[in-house]
Design brief:
Blueprint lengths: L4 H6 L10 E3 L4 E4 L4 E6 L2 E2 L7 E2 L5
Antiparallel strand pairs: 1-2, 2-3, 3-4, 3-5
Length: 59
Amino acid sequence: MTIDPWLLERLVCPATRTPLHYDEVAGELVSEAAGLAYPIRDGVPVMLVEEARRLEDRG
């Protein structure tokens, strides 16, 4: 799955308002500044802090 580059340029982390990067392997939008990864479900980014995974949970 890929994410539209136009959309990715416009999305920001809702917690920090910083740019996100797309982790294609995990299928997530990652905010390094917040230490959060936002899931993409059925092609739709879920931009809710409550739904995000903490990066230290990776493993």
